[in-house]
Amino acid sequence: MRDKILFIMTHIIGSAIYKIGRAGDMVWLSIGEPSTTKGLRGRRTVYPYAIHLHCPWVFTYEGSVWMEDDDLSDINGQSRFDYLIEGIPLPLRIVAVDADERGGFYLRFNGNWMLRAYIPQEKSEAELWRFIEFMGSEEESKHFVISGSSMD
Questions:
Q1: Which of 3, 60, 95, 139 has the most CB atoms lying inside 10 A of its own CB?
Q2: Residue 145: HSE in the Cβ half-sphere, 13 Å Cα cutoff
């Protein structure tokens, strides 16, 4: 599994993460130089790549935890994630990618930042993370998906 993940993700080395956000308990990263395209609802900004995380993850700065998946928990409509994300100096350039045999990966960035995504011991059939390569339209985009028991 490690070799397949590296094959898919090593070409983003040198690219930058321009945006990080969340939708509920999913974290998304927008990677690569942004461009605009015309869609059904007008013009929108798109990025060549994206990563969606549904698995345990941790963002570190100089080896110390900056934020992690537990920070997504909502308290009165707010989460620690919403506050902590503001402290990450975007864009961050990807300087290294690595993966493990279980399906986890890490991205190392300039400025001593790192993102590590883990595959939990108790595997389920649910999607854990997804790498998307935008190919001009949503229908043409390539999706690489890691779930608890497979890789598509």
A1: 60
A2: 12
